[in-house]
Amino acid sequence: MVGSTFINRTAKLLFHRTRPSLWDAFSHPSGFAFPSGHAMASMSLVSALVILTWGTRWCWLVVLFGSVFVGTIAWTRLYLGVHFPSDILAGWMVSLAWSISVSLVVRPHLTGKTSPKEETLLSSEEAQAVN
Q1: Fewer CB within 10 Å: N-end or C-end of the chain?
Q2: Contact (Cβ atoms closer than 8 angstroms) between residue 63 and residue 10
Q3: What is the dihedral of CA 111, 116, 122, 124, to 10 degrees?
Q4: pLDDT tens by residue, the chain, 131 residues
Q5: Cα–Cα dist 39/76, whole Å
Q6: Three-state SS across the chain?
């Protein structure tokens, strides 16, 4: 979540995209619109939960309720008139890429699995000693 927040704030400073003014919004948040911070935060949370529950019986429950949660957050951003649809889609894509990247780096170290390359480097004598 911290990395996602850092990426969001950096992207907002780089792109300087103004918020939509299609209709009178209920709220007038300050700051730039692209990408949506709410969309990024909700997708980062749900994707982290899916990654953590992957392979368990809870995974599909997390996917189901997480999808509803992420969709609801996106709808409120559009309904309130504070984001364009592209702001939300960009937030989702960036947070998914971030979550998957962190998972690919961290998860092998948590499970202690070795790569197939490391397993084939053992000599036949070492392999017999291990078995």
Answers
A1: C
A2: no
A3: 120
A4: 777 777 767 776 677 666 666 666 565 666 666 787 788 888 888 988 888 888 888 888 899 999 999 899 888 887 777 777 888 888 888 888 888 888 887 776 655 555 555 555 555 555 555 55
A5: 10
A6: CHHHHHHHHHHHHHHCCCCCCCCCCCCCCCCCCCCCHHHHHHHHHHHHHHHHHCCCCCHHHHHHHHHHHHHHHHHHHHHCCCCCHHHHHHHHHHHHHHHHHHHHHHHHHHHCCCCHHHHHCCCHHHHHHHC
